[in-house]
Design a protein that fits this description.
Elements (H helix, E strand, L loop, with lengths): L6 H17 L7 E5 L4 H17 L4 E8 L5 H17 L3 E5 L9 H19 L4 E3 L4 H15 L11 E2 L2 E2 L7 H11 L15 H14 L5 H30 L7 E6 H5 L3 H15 L7 H12 L6 E5 L2 E6 L2 E6 L9 E4 H7 L4 E5 L2 E9 L5 H5 L3 E5 L5 E5 L6 E2 L8 E2 H7 L11 E5 L2 E6 L5 E2 L11 E9 L1
Length: 478
């Protein structure tokens, strides 16, 4: 017969039930997968969730998961046995996954966490569980708030972890780590200590071992203060989210194929600066899969939307980019770098070919380059995309290529020089097509743009009455 629990344990169980009832971190009929490491927090979780279920009559269906990374030798075996014994005594089915020590390196904790949650979600689906339950406590919440503030420099970091967030439940966020450890000792619950938690090799360990103790010298209840701040920030975030959703509806515009989001820049400019920043943060966070977005990334996209020219792009990481063009900023998968070997035509060969010209293969198409005597422009051909450039002397070489980064030229009639990228944006060439534009290069100078873009001659290559000869280029086959 088991001994009665001390009054302090019963009090903690009642507090756990009150917290679950208030936050609804666990709900009636939940089929829950408990993530148990064998430490004090997780073994307290196993006990307290069962006590909460009895007190509130939730009818929970429990399954447990232990992930054994096999990195701590005998300690790994000890923790697995602790979880096995605890689950057997509680009558909770246990899944044990051994990963065989495949994770190493400075970012071990982050990669282990990602692998652990991915595995948990797959197993939860396979076993019919609708929620994954973790043992995060109030001290973990304090570390999370500090870590996010330091790393992401955004008030969103203050929100921290929520008691119920999608398929994740954290019913112990109200309790301190010391309280949970004392509960295990008083209730006779076996647990293990992970020696890696005592090393400062990991960022979160440094916060727990070095930063928080320093802050406790200013406020002995700093963990409670940070946790309360997270709770207040979460409530305020709901208000801001509603305002952001309304703004999103005002500025959203039609997406093209491959777009994750598209925002009208004129409408966006009418929003207040603070709301614009919140809106862009929301769009980026959704596109990046829900991760916290660093402030510098939001600022980079803000600068893109504020440019005076309708061009530019920002790499967002994870294979995504933000691209401006046509009065719209689009978030989309980054286009693969398009590269073609330039097609070069020797000037002497061009002169020798006469009006028949020289055929050049470029970007899966066939082009004809001719050198014609005098000044000549066929306006019907020019309207169809052919190029006519006036020259005073025969070129040494002519090349067909794609635009270079930062390349500049002065379009005929503009009166000033600009970048090729800005010119294409102003011409409303879709961003995905700009790398495919054909440039005609005459002796190293940008003379003409065409192909997928409206044909445009450079000012210095306009055909004038005084032109000695005309360079003619036309795409004959694609």
């Amino acid at each position: 017969m088991s001994r009665p629990l001390p009054a302090a344990c019963l009090l903690l169980q009642r507090r756990a039930a009150d917290a679950v009832a208030e936050t609804r971190s666990l709900r009636g009929g939940d089929r829950a997968l408990l993530m148990l490491s064998g430490g004090a927090d997780s073994m307290a979780l196993l006990s307290l969730v069962r006590a909460v279920d009895r007190r509130l009559g939730l009818g929970l269906v429990l399954t447990a998961l232990h992930v054994d990374y096999g990195l701590r030798g005998a300690d790994s075996d000890r923790d697995r046995r602790i979880v096995e014994h605890g689950c057997a005594a509680a009558g909770v089915p246990l899944l044990v996954e051994r990963l065989g020590g495949r994770l190493h390196g400075a970012d071990f904790q982050a990669r282990a966490r990602e692998q652990r949650y991915g595995l948990a979600r797959a197993l939860a689906t396979g076993h019919g569980c609708n929620v994954i339950v973790t043992a995060h406590n109030r001290d973990d919440q304090a570390e999370t708030v500090l870590y996010r503030l330091v790393k992401y420099a955004t008030p969103r970091g203050l929100v921290g972890m929520r008691p119920r967030d999608g398929d994740l439940a954290r019913p112990l966020l109200w309790a301190g780590a010391g309280e949970l450890r004392d509960y295990c000792r008083a209730a006779g619950i076996e647990f293990g200590d992970d020696f890696t938690n005592a090393t400062s090799a990991y960022a979160r360990n440094r916060l727990r071992l070095e930063v928080l103790p320093g802050l406790e010298a200013l406020n002995p209840r700093v963990a409670e203060t940070l946790a309360a701040t997270a709770e207040q920030a979460a409530a305020e975030a709901e208000v801001l989210a509603a305002a952001t959703d309304e703004a999103r509806r005002r500025v959203a515009t039609a997406t093209d194929w491959g777009d994750l989001a598209a925002l009208d820049l004129t409408a966006l400019a009418k929003e207040s600066p603070a709301l614009r920043a919140l809106l862009l943060h929301q769009v980026l966070r959704e596109a990046l899969g829900g991760v916290l977005v660093q402030r510098r990334l939001v600022r980079a996209v803000e600068r893109l939307t504020a440019r005076t020219d309708d061009a530019g792009r920002v790499s967002l990481g994870r294979g995504l980019e933000a691209v401006r063009g046509g009065g719209v900023v689009r978030v989309r998968a980054a286009a693969g770098r398009h590269a073609c070997v330039p097609a070069t035509v020797d000037g002497e060969a061009l002169v020798a070919a006469g009006e028949d010209g020289v055929e050049a293969g470029f970007c899966a198409g066939a082009w004809r380059v001719r050198l014609l005597p005098g000044a000549f422009v066929d306006r019907e051909q020019a309207a169809a995309g052919a190029g006519f450039m006036g020259l005073d002397v025969a070129p040494r070489s002519v090349a067909l290529r794609h635009p270079r980064r930062g390349e500049r030229f002065a379009p005929l009639g503009l009166g000033r020089e600009t970048t090729v990228a800005r010119h294409l944006a102003a011409a409303r060439v879709p961003a995905r097509l700009r790398p495919l534009v054909t440039v005609l290069d005459v002796d190293g100078r940008t003379a003409w743009l065409g192909g997928v873009a409206p044909a445009r001659v450079a000012e210095s290559f306009r055909v004038a009455h005084s032109s000695v000869m005309t360079l003619h280029v036309v795409q004959e086959r694609t």
